Amino acid sequence: xxxxxxxxxxxxxxxxxxxxxxxxxxxxxxxxxxxxxxxxxxxxxxxxxxxxxxxxxxxxxxxxxxxxxxxxxxxxxxxxxxxxxxxxxxxxxxxxxxxxxxxxxxxxxxxxxxxxxxxxxxxxxxxxxxxxxxxxxxxxxxxxxxxxxxxxxxxxxxxxxxxxxxxxxxxxxxxxxxxxxxxxxxxxxxxxxxxxxxxxxxxxxxxxxxx
Length: 211
What we know:
Layout: H1 11-17, H2 35-46, E1 63-67, E2 84-88, H3 100-104, E3 125-127, E4 133-135, H4 139-151, H5 157-173, H6 179-189, H7 202-210
Antiparallel strand pairs: 1-2, 3-4
Helix pairs in contact: 5-7, 6-7
């Protein structure tokens, strides 16, 4: 999981919500193009085109707008931009296991969810060479990390295999590079490329480089 710094909501979204009057109030069911497209695009850009939970590469076609706090808790949450994220698995292949936003569904626990919009979210997890995501050794963070991994199915075989593949190039060189090279790599994977994209599973890659 990588920290997501939320940006300002798209102007078109703000303007649309400000059309509210005595006869009409904006709702999630009314939320359509072009405002919904603008919001989806904005979420992808602020996340560097990786899933808010697992960190795999996403595009508009394979992602959906996810609500961190479920809409059923409060109808206003449905149109609160700070509550919106872009999650992978917009559609599922047959027999493909649920994970990330699709698996999370309506679950939310303020004390047990590790939120990607919390600046310290990356401190809750550690990664192994074979692609596993595990809870940190910090006892104060372990329960939330373990619960989040379970509720979002972040350690299923599919994601472990994808993470392991992403880690392979780093593992091949990690014992041969200089400390300066290692720091340069950490910096590089911490930033987006010229297209505004983070490297897929960059949080796992950075963890291995640091540890």
